[in-house]
Amino acid sequence: MDHNRLILRRQKEIAEKISLLLKKEGEGSAFSKMTITRVKLSGSMETCKVYYLLLDNENLAKKVLASGKVIWLQGRLGQLLGYKKSPHLEFIFDKGYEHALKIDQILQNLNPNFPLAAATEKPTTPAKPKEVFEEK
After folding, report:
1. The pTM of the whole model exceeds 0.85
2. Which of 11, 49, 104, 118 could cysteine-pair with 40, CB 3.0–4.6 Å?
3. Distance (Å, rounded) from C-alpha 127 to C-alpha 43?
């Protein structure tokens, strides 16, 4: 299997397993409120950057992650994946959502009459296709 494909497949596997662990075994803690946005595995597959989002409180997530729970999570992940060696996990707060909100606010300030796309757009039903052939 191509090395890049293997990394992509393992990234997907790791993201799914970490999300499962956070939801299942982190009930009642900040872990259960975390959302994994993406996972980036190094080429050597020894380190893994896990980007997460916590809408409630970024500082709370940092405290939970600094309390030794990452080591526990890494051990459980290794058991679930069944790899010879599980990658070292590095959790990074994903600021992409905050940036998107700031951009929306800037655009709203530039033109107050223009509604925000995310807040006001309603999904529309597609128009029916016109008949190509007309009977004569």
Report:
1. no
2. 49
3. 47
Neighbour-count burial for 11-37, b at 16+ CB within 10 Å, e otherwise: bebbbebbbebbeeebeeebbebbebe
CB 31 within 8 A of CB 22: yes
Written in H, E and C, the secondary structure of the chain is CCHHHHHHHHHHHHHHHHHHHHHHHCCCCHHHHCEEEEEEECCCCCEEEEEEECCCCHHHHHHHHHHHHHHHHHHHHHHHHCCCCCCEEEEEECCHHHHHHHHHHHHHHHCCCCCCHHHHCCCCCCCCCCCCCCCC
Amino acid at 11: Q
Which residue ranges make up each domain of the chain?
Answer: 3-97
CATH 3.30.300.20 fits 3-97, yes or no: yes
Considering the chain, what is the average pLDDT of its residues?
Answer: 77
Average pLDDT over residues 68-83: 84
* pLDDT mean over 52-72: 72
